[in-house]
Inverse folding.
């Protein structure tokens, strides 16, 4: 059983930056593909970014602004978010998938993940 705990959310002005962290425990972190999803009020949870060992995938809406990375020694995955926009406002969830390839996350949606964190709120003011 894998536990995921997100941190780093908050309130930021448009154009600003935040870095989210997700600490994993209870499993072999290096054996999981990791990802970030987000859910805005009244909307479905959507794919943001995923990472395998070094391969990364991004939603078109965040490509060039967000960077996903992982530190297997620290059992942690990060999401660096730059040039934030008000439409990035959402609860951001960390996700871990054992079998599903990171390239399939956008197509599978929430079915991609085997485990979820509790989420961290990101609010971008205009």
């Amino acid at each position: 059983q894998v536990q995921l705990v997100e941190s780093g959310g908050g309130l930021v002005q448009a154009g600003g930056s935040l870095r989210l962290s997700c600490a994993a425990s209870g499993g072999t972190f290096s054996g999981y593909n990791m990802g970030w999803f987000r859910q805005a009020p009244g909307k479905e949870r959507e794919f943001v970014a995923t990472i395998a060992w070094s391969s990364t995938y991004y939603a078109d809406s965040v490509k060039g602004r967000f960077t996903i990375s992982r530190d297997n020694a620290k059992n942690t995955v990060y999401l660096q978010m730059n040039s934030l926009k008000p439409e990035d406002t959402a609860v951001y969830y960390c996700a871990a998938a054992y079998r599903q390839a990171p390239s399939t996350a956008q197509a599978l949606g929430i079915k991609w993940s085997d485990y979820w964190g509790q989420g961290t709120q990101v609010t971008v003011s205009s």
Remarks:
- The chain has a mean pLDDT of 95.
